Amino acid sequence: MAWVPSHIEECEPIDVDAAIAATIAQDQEWMATSAYDGPHAEAVRRSLLVLRYLSHEVTGGLVAAPTMSLPEDFGGERNWDYRYCWLRDAALTLEALLVAGYSGKAAAWRDWLLRAVAGDPSAMQIMYRLDAGHDLPERELDHLPGYRDSRPVHLGNGAVDQRQIDVLGEVMVALEMSREQGMTGNPDSLALQGALVDDLAGHWREPDHGIWEIRAELRHFTQSRVMVWAAMDRAITAHEKHGMPGDVQNWRRVREQVRELIETEGFDEERGCYTQHDATSEVDASLLLLPTVGYCEATDERFVGTVRAIEEDLLRDGLVLRYRTESGVDGLSGDEHPFFLCCFWLVSAYARMGRVDDAERYPAWLLSLSNDVGLMAEEVDHEGTFYGNFPQAFSHLGLIRAAYDLQEAQRRR
Fold first, then answer.
1. Whether the model pTM is above 0.90
2. Most buried of 95, 173, 339, 365, CB within 10 angstroms?
């Protein structure tokens, strides 16, 4: 199959058998980098290949998914275009590749980031095009019926204009992990990171749209504040180890201030758990990331209480929701389904907490819900029906991290 513009002559057909053989050989060579032999090794290898295919070979950009407007709620309005590079998604993808030993991807993505964000740090977007372009306005394609009559069909993504203060934290965590694995320093990159952290230190108290890109009232999301803490923490480390420029004394002050707010405004003493934001007792699956970024230990009683609350509130047929849509926090009509990523976050939490038996049982069922070639969409129900865009980087990177966390837990046991 091929496509060319109508004013250009059709290209010669390729040798299909030779192309398939060459592709398989390249994949096998690439997979040889990973020495993973732990739990669910075949699924981990497949997920690594998915992340490879979601990365642009030339620009270094990493897309969230290669599809648009596959609905999270059949017949509803939760339909988004995911063919772009979210800094958060890309950073988490990079972390999964680094855990598996693919450090070569780090420099390419860092250089993509430099091209995308270069200029005024305060103008940093949360997402960009594959070529690092900034222009991706959202519009509705009213002439299309949508998958299973799910409208509107969206082209572009309006979240590009949102305020999401957690994003820089994910970027800083990934870049620090890259340096720990030997990525050489780049003065331009360090200067840019220092400027971005300085800018965040000046407006981190503002409410935002959060990791789930709500389209309602801005909130002081606990996970966003935790990632501000992580951004300051990794910036301090980068200054001490690599000479990253910036106001490090202010970074230390902000790190302590944001922790104080999290512990006072983002924790429900009655329930004994962290909360989705400072004006609710609801929980959010993103709180499962707290130990992963080093904010607390997984055995901390406050985190243990949070996992318990998530199990009570967010499990649907054994699968994990992002949050309860009936709370009205996201400003959208309709419902959604459990997130593959959140399910794998729960596996990682179990493994880090020492609940190894739970961490061992859960992934096999989750993987049974993937399709016949091991691919996963964004959301799933207990019957294995997929919802949302497909295949989803979030789902596959979550599997990789969970498998490595489980392997480490088994080693400790």
1. yes
2. 339
